Amino acid sequence: MNEFLIFDMDDTIFETKSIGEEPVKPILDKFEHLLIHRFGTELAKEIVAKLWKYPFDVIADTYKFDEYQNSEFARLVNENEYNLKVQPFEDFNLVKNLKQEKVLVTTGFSKLQNAKIQHLGLEKEFNKIYIDDILDPKRIFKKGIFKNILLDKNIKPEFVYIVGDNPHSELKAGFELGLNTIQVAKFGQKRSEYANYYISNFKELIPILAVK
Ligand SMILES: [Mg+2]
């Protein structure tokens, strides 16, 4: 029972898309107005369409958003009130019953991520929750957070399991740090080269954790 589990949240514990458009639409509508000044009507519309599909930092990088655009977006995210109707995947109940120490490490905007955590009732399920805030100027990314956890807890990498869906985020970071990586493919995603294990249901965690 020495295993230490680090979970991702979006598309690992619940389906991110299930939030729906309504709670975040006011942010993107206002942001589109702001983008028009720099990019014009057509391109602003195109950028906002991409913001619906891809993470903010990826789009900010592609279109070279400046400090003003980044900080205004953060302001809109922080001012918005989130009334979310979200639920964990059904098999998350199995995770609740695992006896191992569990922490949550999630990337996004703090206020929105906190709203998800609260509406999903996750505070009581994890020993600690870390948010990798996209707009934090001192951002250390998930990899930095994982490293700090290893140091703080003084645990050997072989006992740490990263459970998540994103090959470019937690799975890559965990793999590079020599941690065990478990890819959760709820939607039939293809297996990542950074995944030591590949599951679609949390019941598959039990035999994996029973190995050691
Ligand atoms: Mg995810």
From TrEMBL:
It comes from the Bacteria. GO terms for molecular function: hydrolase activity. This is HAD family hydrolase. It is an enzyme of class 3 (hydrolase). Pfam families: HAD_2 (PF13419). Keywords: Hydrolase, Magnesium, Metal-binding. Its EC number is 3.1.3.-. InterPro entries: HAD-like_hydrolase, HAD-like_sf, HAD_2, HAD_sf.
